[in-house]
Amino acid sequence: MKQIEVTIMGQSYILGCPEGGETSLLEAVASVDREMSAIRDAGRVKARERIAVLAALNLAYALAERPVAPAAGSASAPAVPGSDDAHIDALIRRVDQALGADGQLL
């Protein structure tokens, strides 16, 4: 697994990335950065942690609202490639690693 340095809302993060997953990861980072920046720029929320939670909820809601397209030979498939539970768990672990103690509840 390689590491990629990204910037979200002006803060740098080093993220683990599987070989061949760079484009998808960078697209995800861009989405998170856009969402967090929009929330911050609206001026109602100042705390980075709250902005991150609101952005995560907005993006998760948008993902949940996507229609599920049937795959060949199956009744249904995830609307987003790799959006199964194992993939989501891996993303959560990456976010936890990137945030370190900053994102943990006391």
Describe this structure in words.
By secondary structure, the protein is an alpha+beta fold. It has one domain. Helix content is 51%, strand content 13%. It has a two-stranded antiparallel ribbon. A hairpin with a 2-residue loop joins β1 and β2. α1 crosses α2. It is globular and about 40 Å long. The protein starts with a strand and ends in a 7-residue tail after the last helix. Homodimer. Interacts with FtsZ. This is Cell division protein ZapA. It is found in: Cytoplasm.
What labels would you give this structure?
3 helices; two-stranded antiparallel ribbon; alpha+beta; 106 residues
Task: Summarize the helices and strands and which ones pair or pack.
Layout: E1 2-8, E2 11-17, H1 22-42, H2 48-65, H3 85-99
Antiparallel strand pairs: 1-2
Classify the helix fraction into a percent range: 40-55%
Uncertain ranges: 74-83
Beta-strand fraction estimate: 5-15%
| Mass-distribution shape | globular
Number of helical segments? 3
In the sheet with the most strands, the strands line up as: 1-2
The tally of beta strands, per DSSP, is 2
Query: Quick one: biggest sheet?
Result: 2 strands, antiparallel
Summing up helix and strand content along with how strands pair, one would put the structural category as: alpha+beta
Subunit structure: Homodimer. Interacts with FtsZ.
InterPro entries: Cell_div_ZapA-like (IPR007838), Cell_div_ZapA-like_sf (IPR036192), Cell_div_ZapA_N (IPR042233)
Protein name: Cell division protein ZapA
Main location: cytoplasm
